[in-house]
Amino acid sequence: MTTSPEIRHKIRDAVLARAERQRTEAKVHETRELKRKFGKHIQALRKKAGLTQEGLAEAIGKSVDQMGNIERGATATRLDTAQALADFLGVSLSDLFSFEERGVSESPRDALIADLADLLQDEDEATIRAIMKTIKVLLDDFVVREAD
Q: Are both 99 and 112 inside the same structural domain?
């Protein structure tokens, strides 16, 4: 069975239109996911600094609602807002956007381990070895207490 050129053209157009819709939907999803990850990263940095949403919002001249929208990934963040966040949180603008490295969906346990690694980042090897020995002693003591 052969199809007419007109039908083939309509089928091709429908396939191309569907592919374009799928690409658009993927871009929208990717944008939403990026905003969500950015917001989670801002929230983690804020909590690490011991700040409330209200305190951070006030410090950068935004409303609490705007801060909540940023942290939920409901809105995109303007560059000037991102710079104000970075400045106040004591990180570089590039660090503010480096949430992909560690991922924002890490478990609380993984986040704590990452925080420990961050604490040790600037220490020399001898200090890190001493801290590791101390941690091992503490863990051994903890396991013994758990067994009792």
A: no
